[in-house]
């Protein structure tokens, strides 16, 4: 039996009585963890689910992982903060990727509403429109059937921030500039389109392959991490510097860089540069996390761009 005491920080949700804190009690499990403390808070306040609780050591900002044992925190005071209403990561991704599909379809099929005139789209515009639909439809399918998430939920307020990139830049800005009347004058040959199609197909299939490899590393319902190997992760020779920690980001960047290059669209370049910049930041963090967790066992790789970064 282990006794616990947890105080409340920040603004409490309406259904939590601040006078109930510090919340004290006993945990009878053999190896009580932070997960048990969250369960005790939820037992006292059923609407205060574990997903919206942030447990920290009093005076510190870093959240304690659910599997941290209370025996390692003897003498430490715990605090709980409300993270607000939550939404599943899967739900956020579905909403994010649905936006570009709807917006591109509306701008492409109803140009008079957006440009004040009809547009006879060029073969290149139609080709890129179909690519956008296939790309984001693929992302929706991956969200439902492929991706496994380390965290079940995120604050609902993040939906607006996350959708800003996809609905704003990847949706309205990209679609407006790709299908505008002036761009319809750009002529391309069928051979050129086939070449571009092969490059985009390579990037999309390679990106999917990376996601499948990552999925295979994590059993259902687990947050287990392991070193990924294989296509994209390794260079020409296993462990060579040509490998990267986040090949999915690299292939994603190749796809949108190709769209920007062939279209000459300012909107496409903005979406490519902003998206690639964000992926470089994510890749650096994931690369550092791999190296910290696996130490010398982790292969010599770059974070995202082979041989460069």
Automatic annotation (TrEMBL):
| Name the record gives this protein | 3-oxo-5-alpha-steroid 4-dehydrogenase-domain-containing protein
- Which residue range or ranges hold the 3-oxo-5-alpha-steroid 4-dehydrogenase C-terminal domain? 153-309
* Record-stated family: Belongs to the steroid 5-alpha reductase family.
Q: Which Gene Ontology terms describe the biological processes this protein takes part in?
A: very long-chain fatty acid biosynthetic process
Naming one, the record's GO cellular component terms include:
membrane
Q: Where are the transmembrane segments?
A: 254-282
InterPro entries, alphabetically? 3-oxo-5_a-steroid_4-DH_C, SRD5A/TECR
Q: Which UniProt keywords apply?
A: Lipid biosynthesis, Lipid metabolism, Membrane, Oxidoreductase, Transmembrane, Transmembrane helix
* Cellular localization per UniProt: Membrane
């Amino acid at each position: 039996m282990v006794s616990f005491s947890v105080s409340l920080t920040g603004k409490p949700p309406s259904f939590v009585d601040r006078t109930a804190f510090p919340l004290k009690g006993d945990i009878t499990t053999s190896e009580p963890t932070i997960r048990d403390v969250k369960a005790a808070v939820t037992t006292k306040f059923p609407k205060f689910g574990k997903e919206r609780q942030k447990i920290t050591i009093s005076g510190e900002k870093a959240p304690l992982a659910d599997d941290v044992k209370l025996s390692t925190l003897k003498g430490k005071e715990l605090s709980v903060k409300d993270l607000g209403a939550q939404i599943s990561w899967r739900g956020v991704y579905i909403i994010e990727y649905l936006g570009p599909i709807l917006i591109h379809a509306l701008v492409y099929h109803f140009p008079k509403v957006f440009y004040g005139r009809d547009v006879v789209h060029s073969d290149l515009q139609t080709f890129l429109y179909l690519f956008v639909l296939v790309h984001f439809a693929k992302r929706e399918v991956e969200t439902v059937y492929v991706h496994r998430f380390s965290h079940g939920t995120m604050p609902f307020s993040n939906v607006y921030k996350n959708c800003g990139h996809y609905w704003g830049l990847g949706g309205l800005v990209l679609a407006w500039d790709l299908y505008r009347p002036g761009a319809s004058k750009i002529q391309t040959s069928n051979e050129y389109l086939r070449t571009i199609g092969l490059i985009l197909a390579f990037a999309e299939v390679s990106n999917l392959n990376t996601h499948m490899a990552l999925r295979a590393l994590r059993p259902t319902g687990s947050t287990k991490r392991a070193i990924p190997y294989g296509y994209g992760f390794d260079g020409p020779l296993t462990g060579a510097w040509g490998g990267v920690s986040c090949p999915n980001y690299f292939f994603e960047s190749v796809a949108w860089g190709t769209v920007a290059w062939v279209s000459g669209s300012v909107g496409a370049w903005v979406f490519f540069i902003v998206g690639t910049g964000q992926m470089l930041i994510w890749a650096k963090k994931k690369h550092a996390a791999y190296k910290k967790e696996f130490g010398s066992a982790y292969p010599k790789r770059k974070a995202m761009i082979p041989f460069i970064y």
